[in-house]
Amino acid sequence: MSAPENKQPHVTDGTMTHSLSETMTFLHENLGVERSFDIIYRVIHVGDREACLYFIDGFCKDEIMNKVLFDLMQVTPDKMPENAHHMSKKMISYVEVDLKNQWNDIITGILSGVFALFIDGYDQCIMIDSRTYPARNVAEPDKDKAMRGSRDGFVETLVFNTALIRRRIRSTDLTMEIMRAGESSKTDIVVCYMKGRVNEKFLEQIRNRINSIKVDALTMGQESLAECLYRKKWYSPYPKFRYTERPDTAAAQVLEGHIVIIVDNSPNVMITPISVFDILEEADDFYFPPITGTYLRFARFLIAIMTFIITPLYLLLSQNINYVPEVFQFILLKEQTNIPLIWQFLILELALDGLRLAAVNTPSMLSTPLSIMAALVLGEFSVKSGWFNSEVMLYMAFVAIASFTQASYEFGYAIKFMRIITLILTAFFGIYGFIAGILVLIISIATNKTLEGSSYLYPLIPFNGKKLSYRLFRRRLPGSLD
Fold first, then answer.
1. Which helix (H) or strand (E) holds 199?
2. pLDDT for the residue numbered 365
3. φ, ψ for residue 231 (rounded to 5)?
4. How far lies 436's CA from each of 276, 414, 432, in Å?
5. What DSSP element (H or E) covers 320?
6. How would you class 254 by CB atoms within 10 Å of its CB: exposed for 0-12, middle for 13-18, buried for 19 or more?
7. Alpha-helix runs per DSSP H in 136-282
8. 346 Cβ neighbours under 8 A, 6+ residues apart
């Protein structure tokens, strides 16, 4: 097949012309057809006119392409439609067909996997969305597991993720708005919300922020988008979004009036606006009876507080033995301290993150034996060698295990940073440093704002007793029978 003649097309306004030869010249130069093996084009005859197909190898479904080609081959000169609109309506037996005449839209569509048909004499391109992306099964996510509930999870394919939410909310108020960001990546972004329940002013802010993003590519998916959407107080460790891989969690948040942002190529969806109470909620709270769900919620709150306070409190009591009642004297150090306690805690804080990073990169077949080895070597032998005291190892082991009760990695690290600050303040200033560390935590959370601009502690600050009770206690569903 010969390439089109090398002549400059007349596309000064970014709109395609009636000339197929000019169109092919323009696309060959801008798509790099001769350089990239997976960009395919084919010249055919439709009726009494010449036509050309462009598509990406690997994105288009072969059986659909064959069916479309068969339909086009059946067009006779006397039945040739006069324009692209009539062609798409009468001669192409496929559902997802669109017409475009702007080059930016056409090129983006082709690179996204859409099947593009150009016919000589037509000033519009017929875009046939027959694409299919490589995708894994919608299996339960490893991170957001639940003891009960559905076992499906979001994947990297955008349309699958929107379908999983549509499956749960069969309402005409459910809206899926698609946008794009990134000059090179042109990443698809879907803003999902319930019309009539969402804050319209905040929704408009989200639209404007996404449309105003000026970056080359969203290289890290939803995290890149999060940093583009919220540029104020970037140093705050508290998350502005809640991330989940569970469709049931996302659907529940949409029904509550939140906005769910779905980014293509990412199995996590972003939920906003969120408060600290939203972060500490989990699906299991609602898959068990109200009394059990309330207990699980309170247990999660209590464990979050304990992961922050237990090591600074032990450091304070070890420095001030007179604060320890006689009945609790057993918690004090029994062995000689070779390294100051503050340094033991700080070293173990870093070591725990090292072990976590090592676990991520460890092959699954080796994870169990290496975990046993790490427990023996870093646990028993580090105490016997005199580097750490057994009491310090015990409390840090509790912190390491308890941190997994939080579904949000970002919130877990925020608590970790506040704990390290409190440890350092306690080591230098004793009881005053301990109190100052707690105040730093409270003030940092109380002064933090959601992406919407409301309080991070709402409905506690500002106080709303009715909504706070719903946040603390698992209630029966509205409308349940007495």
1. none
2. 63
3. -105, -15
4. 21, 17, 6
5. none
6. buried
7. 158-166, 200-211, 222-229, 247-255, 276-279
8. 420, 423, 424
Q: What is the pLDDT of residues 54-96, one digit of tens each?
A: 999 888 777 888 888 888 888 988 889 989 999 988 888 888 8
Q: Is 363 exposed, middle or buried (0-12, 13-18, 19+ CB in 10 A)?
A: exposed
Hey, what amino acid is at 105?
A: D
The encoded tokens of residue 407 equal 């579904």
Q: What are the two backbone dihedrals, phi and then psi, of residue 338, each rounded to the nearest 5 degrees?
A: -85, -30
User: What whole-number distance in Å separates Cα of residue 204 and Cα of residue 218?
Assistant: 21
Supply the pLDDT for residue 8: 43
List the strands of the sheet with 125-128, edge to edge.
Answer: 39-46, 49-56, 115-119, 125-128, 97-100
Can the peptide bond before residue 340 be classed as cis, meaning omega within 30 degrees of 0?
Answer: no
Q: Are 349 and 424 in contact (CB under 8 A)?
A: no
Q: Where are the beta strands (DSSP E) in 232-284?
A: 242-244, 259-263, 269-272
DSSP state string for 217-231: --TTTHHHHHHHH--
CA distances from 201 to 13, 206, 275 (A): 35, 9, 18
Contacts of 37 (CB under 8 A, 6+ apart): 57
Helices of type H across 447-479: 465-472
- Give Cα 128 to chain centroid, integer Å: 29
Cα separations (Å) of 473 from 242, 290, 358, 465, 481? 20, 8, 38, 12, 19
Do you find a cis peptide bond into 363, omega within 30 degrees of 0?
A: no
Question: Which tens digits make up the pLDDT trace of 334-344?
Answer: 778 888 999 99
Helix (H) / strand (E) containing 139: none
Q: What's the mean pLDDT when you consider all of the chain? A: 87
Report residue 159 as tokens: 């349309």
What would the pLDDT profile of 160-207 be if each residue is shown by its tens digit?
999 999 999 999 999 999 999 988 888 999 999 999 999 999 999 999
- Helices 341-361 and 364-375: angle between axes, nearest 10 degrees: 160
What are the tokens at 111? Answer: 């690179």
